[in-house]
Design brief:
Blueprint (H helix, E strand, L loop, with lengths): L6 H16 L3 H18 L6 H16 L6 H24 L3 H11 L4 H4 L5 H9 L3 E4 L1 H10 L2 E5 L5 H12 L5 E6 L10 H6 L7 E4 L14 H9 L2 E5 L1 H7 L9 E6 L3 H7 L6 E5 L2
Parallel strand pairs: 1-7, 2-3, 2-5, 3-4, 5-6
Antiparallel strand pairs: 6-7
Length: 287
């Protein structure tokens, strides 16, 4: 996805929050903010790709502060919130075991995103209100049809905490007799899930786990490891969670490979890009 005008202020807001999490050194924060502004001055222009700029900013913050995981504590908080709501979500799924309802549960997990929504957001309230909403863009039938044809599925994970809800959907996908591989980040960035967090919630019990070989926000094709590029292209079906993956996949030539994005439209640029409203739940076929 190309940047919209609102993205500039969002990058600065995210940078400020990440710096506050990464260090208490105000002089260092000023230095890194200056570098961030230089990145925006050089890179933020019409046609620039949003998740590529975000990745460069957050990598800069990690490097300059020598803090490899500024969001470490929020990762643990996200897990706690997800586990807290898991029984309530499972109860809702018992009442309606349709694929659509499991997709909505996975999308509700996408709310566990302090990067997109900010640190002051009442995440707990949003989780339950999100799962009760219908899908504004609903390509569930197309996804079901592709699942019936597929032998292997590549599932691009997004945030820590969110993967607790992804596990529920992945169990549901087992009904389609597909082999599922879940791709995680190799190194921490924002609150994206890495291999460790996936093992902590037992995701390896329901799927094969791998990494993208990098720490990019979403997928940035030239950053992916060669092994993962091969896995990506050999997958019969790709299911991608979250805004970062949506932003990055839109910049890749997908050919006729079916790719579905599951997310909550948490910001105006994303909502505008897909023709939805802020806060809408989406199951979107990209191609």
């Amino acid at each position: 996805m190309k940047v919209h005008y609102e993205c500039a202020s969002c990058f600065l807001r995210q940078a400020r929050e990440a710096l506050d999490l990464a260090t208490d050194d105000d002089d260092l924060k000023m230095k890194v903010t200056e570098i961030t502004n230089q990145i925006l001055c050089q890179k933020f222009k019409r046609g620039a790709v949003s998740n590529q700029i975000g990745t460069e900013i957050h990598r800069t913050i990690k490097r300059e502060t020598k803090n490899p995981d500024p969001y470490h504590d929020l990762r643990e908080k996200s897990d706690q919130i997800a586990i807290q709501f898991l029984p309530r979500v499972e109860k809702l799924l018992e009442m309606d075991k349709s694929l659509k309802n499991y997709l909505k549960a996975a999308i509700a997990g996408n709310i566990l995103d302090f990067g997109a929504l900010g640190l002051e957001t009442d995440i707990e309230e949003l989780v339950m209100s999100t799962i009760e909403k219908d899908l504004a863009i609903d390509h569930t039938l197309q996804l079901g049809a592709e699942l019936k044809k597929a032998k292997n599925v590549l599932y691009l994970a997004d945030n820590v905490g969110e993967i607790v809800f992804d596990k529920l959907l992945i169990k549901k996908l087992d009904e389609y007799n597909v082999e599922i591989t879940v791709a995680l980040k190799k190194y921490p960035i924002l609150n994206d899930a890495c291999l460790k967090e996936a093992l902590d919630v037992g995701l390896d019990e329901v799927a094969r786990l791998t990494t993208t070989g990098t720490d990019s926000i979403g997928v940035i094709y030239h950053d992916l490891s060669d092994d993962f590029k091969q896995e990506f292209h050999e997958a019969d079906l790709v299911i991608a969670k979250g805004l970062g993956n949506y932003e990055g996949l839109g910049e890749i030539d997908l050919g006729d490979q079916p790719v579905f994005c599951l997310f909550n439209a948490k910001c105006k640029p994303i909502a505008r890009d897909i023709g939805a409203e802020v806060g809408d739940n989406v199951v979107l076929k990209l191609n």
